[in-house]
Amino acid sequence: MGEKKKNTSSSKPVKLCSPSNFPYLNRELSWMDFNSRVLEEAFEKENPVLERVKFLAITESNLDEFFMVRVAGVMDRMHSKPNDKDASGMTPVQQFDSLTVKIHEFVKKQYSCLHRSIVPALKKWGLQFLKIKELTKSQKQSVDEYFDKLIFPVLTPLAVDTSRPFPLLANKSLNIAVRLRKEGEDIFAVVQVPSILPRFLEVPCETARGFVMLEDIIISRLSELFGLYEIQAYCPFRITRDSDLDIDEEADDLLVEIEHSLKKRQRGDPVRLEIGAKCDEALKQFLVNMLDVSDEIIHEVAGPLDLTFLSKFAGIQAPDELKFRPIEPVNPPADFFGYNDMFEAIREKDRMVHHPYESFEAVIKFINQAAKDKDVLAIKQTLYRVSGNSPIIAALIKAAENGKQVTVLVELKARFDEENNIGWAKKLEKAGCHVIYGLAGLKTHCKIVLVVRREADGIRRYLHMGTGNYNDITARFYTDIGMFTCDEKFGEDASSLFNVITGYSAPPVYHKMKVAPTGLRSFFEEMIEKETQNAQNGLPSGITAKINSLVDPNIIRLLYQASQAGVKITLIVRGICCLVPNVKGISETIEVRSIVGQLLEHSRIFIFENGGDPKIYMGSADWMPRNLDKRVELVFPIEDPALAERSFRIIETMKKDVLNTRIQKSDTTYELLDRRGKKVHNSQWEFSEAAKKALLSKKTTVTEEKLFVPMTGESFKKNLDENL
User: Fold this and answer.
1) Which of 79, 104, 434, 445 is flagged as catalytic?
2) CA-wise closest residue to 242 among 258, 260, 265
3) CB 399 within 8 A of CB 371
4) What confidence tier does 413 reach under pLDDT thresholds 50, 70, 90?
5) Fewest CB atoms within 10 Å of the CB: 23, 59, 102, 452?
6) Cα distance between residue 629 and residue 371, in whole Å
7) 703 to 642, 677, 692: CA distances (angstroms)
8) How far, in Å, CA of 119 to CA of 97, rounded?
9) What gap in Å lies between CA 567 and CA 263, rounded to an integer?
10) What is the pLDDT of residues 687-701, one digit of tens each?
């Protein structure tokens, strides 16, 4: 099948030279396995039903992006490089064929989950989707009024004939194809379902709550749109287009070039055509001809198209039992309790914040304070993905208005955030910030803020470095870690990094930071090789990595060699994992875990046993070729003993998680951990409780300290006077 190399049956170490002689799972197939793990959460009956609805919506959103980028890439290589093989040994045609089978099976499971699992569970709670024919007279009247007042005015039925060509339909738009007849002749038309209107409408019910789909309302009134014709058939359909931008990074103005490319995204070639099940054959053929698509990319769907609407449905007002108990961030984080001045706190010691268990407000406060502080001379920051109403951007604009020198690298090539980032780049420039649009040939993915401040003893540099984006919205449900420091060596490294990003400085030798694309690959490779040597020399050895994706063939080869030497390796990989564990003679000491839970695991943490003196690092990089070779990435050591100990505890807590963890087997499938006889640990909830306890402990300590304040002569006299 080409999905992975043949497992060796001997425990004798195998000589590993390239992926051609060691197990390597195709990355696209591994990604589908990840989305299947998310889908399992939608099936999981222990999850509250509206959370299951949300997981199902996430699988659809994931699949949309997968088609727009990864499947589109495979299809492109089928034409441009049909004989090239990827690291797993598969040609583009073999990848496409395997993906097609896997995706069709996956979509069947999605709709089985919807119809057989989620819909019945919703009904038990009095929530149901109704067909038009199921509506009572009063409900039908309510729906008709909604159609007349809101839907009909925005509908534009489009006839397709010799004088009116097939319309250019936007990527991911939902449409209805209609076959009409007049005087014995068939003609065709298209009605776009307005994306500006809610996808579902709640109708009045006496005892339960009922909802009707927008497309069903439109279909029920099609005769009013085509009054002169007889409606023969109709079918909902949706196209997904190739959305990977082709950007000329040598263009005179990168911002303008990306703006032009974004317009092309809506006109990319179709890579998927979804149609309703049992679609009229003539209508199906009409769509195939008009869109020029092959049978392989047609997906017949047994239910409502575009399940991403379920994300909005999951947000309806409902009893608490239907949703997860929310994880509320503590504010302030324990590390900053008792400090109004962020700079004072950071001068005392390095500080750490664990999101979303501890509030992202600490990061916002840091930048806000820098923007207002009269002694701050400059702020430099990288931005990859930010929210639509970003307080970070507002603080940077305020800093520029206050006369600070503000330099911001806004990565315009951040996929699907290009338009948002272009808007922010323009606003920052207008406010007087110096804006860099990324680097030619590289994406800037590192997460760092540098604040330069004038103090009594000279210039001091304050830093925030993190594993996640400066996005206050995703920080509520992505797990990430940030560190604050004013260590001078870190400060020198940060200044050097920004000089490389903003100018023509040669990449320096960094004191503490590990930076891609110049030194991060060699750092990781050397650290893995060192663990191998330590194991061979009888010294303590071990590797733990928590990452989002493991794809890089050479890193995988080195991990296999380390395993052959006896190094115990634990990999906590949320998504793609091309490494295959527990293969005799190759990866017998490697365990691969995937945690999929209430929150999206996003932090990257690396631990190397280092002969009994463990070293721990965090940062923005996954173990993928793009992160190590084609991006500006940052990985930094955790050197403060207290923070290092806390970081080790974070990993140990995740290793104990039996509720959200799946283990990858040697056949590349995943299975939930067996809970029998084990205490049920949920790492995400344990981190939340730990954050609350840490803050409470700080508050209690401060209260106790205030109870025993020594009284001076003056304070004693004042206290005596007040009580007489």
Assistant:
1) 445
2) 265
3) yes
4) confident
5) 102
6) 34
7) 23, 41, 17
8) 32
9) 51
10) 999 999 999 999 987
Return the C-alpha torsion angle 12, 13, 19, 21, nearest 10.
-40
Tokens of 203: 């109708």
How would residue 717 be classed by pLDDT, with cut points 50, 70 and 90?
Answer: low
pTM for this one? Answer: 0.91
Looking at residue 550, the DSSP 8-state letter turns out to be B
Mean pLDDT estimate for the chain: 92
Residue 369 burial (CB count, 10 A)? 17
- For 186, phi then psi, to 5°, come to -85, 135
The dihedral region occupied by 186, where left means phi > 0, alpha psi between -120 and 50, and beta the remainder, is: beta
- Two tokens at 323? 């949703």
Q: Are 34 and 58 in contact (CB under 8 A)?
A: no
Length of the chain: 724
Enter the tokens of residue 392: 């970070």
Full DSSP string of 685-707: HHHHHHHHHHHHHHHHHHHHHHH
Catalytic residue check, 464: no
d(CA 213, CA 21): 52
Contact 5, 24 (CB under 8 A): yes
Distance between CA atoms of residues 261 and 652, nearest Å: 45
Q: What is the CA radius of gyration of the chain?
A: 29
Q: How far is CA 436 from the centre of its chain?
A: 24
In three-state secondary structure terms, 326 is coil
562 within 8 A of 525, measured Cβ to Cβ: no
* pLDDT at 21 (0 to 100): 81
Q: Are 369 and 484 in contact (CB under 8 A)?
A: no
Are 376 and 453 a contacting pair, CB within 8 Å? yes
CA proximity to 526, closest of 610, 646, 635, 429: 610
Residue 92 is encoded by which pair of tokens?
């583009």
- What contacts 183, CB < 8 A, 6 or more positions away? none
The enclosing H or E element of 608 equals strand 604-608
